[in-house]
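4.2 Preliminary Data

To establish feasibility before requesting continued support, the project team ran the inverse folding procedure on a target of 122 residues. The structure was first converted into the token representation described in Section 3, and no sequence information of any kind was made available to the design step. The complete token record follows.
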């Protein structure tokens, strides 16, 4: 019974920390679009790690999450905000804003920030 109470306390603390972090680091739509553009430019400029042109030509949608934060010590969490756009008959659609959050538990320790690019093909 004590372990269940401890688990609930940890989950509640992570939730409060995540809510306060979301309020304090709220970024504007323009900043999110600028950051996504910078990430795509950096990836495409890398000669050895760029996304192949064939993949982008056949892409249905592209989503970019700049600076997704992941961390954990036994319990883990991840959070990131980004932008997605999909191909239409007339070109690319307007941007849609997205958020990725999640949690985990198990043997883990560490902290990292990553730029995530997802390409959805037909």
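Position-by-position output of the design step:
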């Amino acid at each position: 019974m004590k372990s269940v109470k401890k688990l609930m306390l940890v989950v509640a603390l992570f939730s409060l920390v995540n809510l306060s972090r979301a309020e304090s680091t709220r970024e504007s739509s323009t900043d999110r679009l600028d950051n996504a553009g910078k990430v795509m430019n950096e990836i495409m400029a890398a000669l050895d790690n760029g996304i192949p042109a064939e993949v982008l030509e056949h892409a249905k949608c592209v989503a970019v999450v700049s600076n997704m934060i992941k961390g954990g010590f036994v319990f883990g969490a991840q959070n990131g905000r980004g932008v997605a756009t999909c191909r239409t008959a007339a070109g690319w659609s307007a941007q849609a804003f997205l958020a990725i959050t999640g949690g985990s538990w198990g043997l883990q320790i560490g902290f990292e920030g990553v730029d995530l690019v997802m390409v959805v093909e037909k």
